[in-house]
Amino acid sequence: MNIGIVCYPTYGGSGVVATELGMALANKGHQVHFVTSHQPVRLNFLNPNLHFHEVFIEDYPLFHFQPYELALSSKLVEVVEKYNIDLLHVHYAIPHAYAAYMAKQMLKQKGFDIPFVTTLHGTDITLVGSHPVYKTAVEFSINNSDAVTAVSDSLRRDTMRLFDISKKIEVIYNFIDFEKLKNWNDEDCSRINLAKSDEKIITHVSNFRPVKKVLDVIYIFNNIQKKISSKLIMVGDGPEREKAESLARELGIKNKIIFMGKSDEVREILFMSDLFLLPSETESFGLAALEAMAAKTPVISTNTGGIPEVNIHGKTGLLSNVGDVDNMSENALKILENEEILNSFKEGAYSVAQEFSIESILPKYEEMYRRIKANCC
């Protein structure tokens, strides 16, 4: 198949999932065309089946905000015509599903009948899409998609609750490509550069937005380090970073925390870690938790959104209510204070992560592609 993929080309979860999916499809022999504003950060062009088409936006003084969805829909029409695309797969409802619908209507006038799949990732529904300014357009775009998927059952239920949806929403979970982890060698690990041999490594990875509750990470670690010699690795950047660094100084633990900023070595850091903290206010899936689990790192997290579908309480880690820093601290110590318990959780995390392997998830997308292509054309 010739498949067009539209996503945000950033470090965010939706962009990462879309890019990894496209590369996996290319490895299976499909021709995959990414149509985005910039080259996706994880896109590897070593595969000749991968193609990138940049969406250019002219800078007109008339527009306060440049009309990206218009440029995107026009580019989609161009790419579909030129490369005989069979279907489009758009990630994130805003503005991608709306742009895909407009492209589909324009293509109909040119004799093309192209289906499109919309994958919902979370904030496009729960935070942005449900806002009155966007709700009508998002609802329309979802209902006029040829197929709709959500990355967790929690997100599917939220979508049905927040919108008047007539379209069936299928749950297809995010995934891990374990093939890319095979070459990791513990002997090459530079753990000594992050912590002393007797220190446990606690890790948090996010975009440091308020919803990630980064300050809770600092408070939890503060409670951990009082009982166990440990280091906290903070990977990522965003609006809450300055507050987090300030809190660390106030608590007198700044020297026990490494703020890495954005890093391309997330996998390596996770392999060195003993525990992963995810105290988010909400997560549609929790891809960061899954990536930690794939590196045999147990997860201490909240029980919100789709996280409990990934972090299985008592097996891959432990769950707490949002904002319950004391309980998350106690749970962390339960795992870290006993080496046998820690190893048990490490094995449990890896075992459950394998259920989300790309080998299990990719065929579900391929089957959906074949189905909507057959129904459409």
Summarize the SSE layout with pairings.
Blueprint (H helix, E strand, L loop, with lengths): L1 E5 L6 H15 L3 E6 L13 E5 L13 H16 L3 E5 L1 H16 L7 E5 L2 H4 L5 H12 L3 E4 L2 H10 L6 E3 L28 E6 L8 H14 L2 E6 L5 H10 L6 E5 L4 H7 L2 E4 L8 H8 L4 E4 L14 E4 L4 H12 L2 H15 L4 H19 L1
Parallel strand pairs: 1-2, 1-4, 2-3, 4-5, 5-6, 6-7, 8-9, 8-11, 9-10, 11-12, 12-13
Instruction: Give the ordered list of helices and strands.
Output: EHEEHEHEHHEHEEHEHEHEHEEHHH
* Count of discrete alpha- or pi-helical segments spanning 4 or more residues: 13
The CATH topology of the largest domain is given as Rossmann fold
The CATH homology group name of the largest domain: Glycogen Phosphorylase B
**Got a strand count?**
13
Terminal CA distance reads 13 Å
Structural class: alpha/beta
What low-confidence regions span 5 or more consecutive residues with pLDDT below 50?
none
For this entry, what is the oligomeric state of its chains? single chain
A few lines on this structure:
By secondary structure, the chain is α/β, with parallel strands linked by helices. It contains 13 helices and 13 strands.
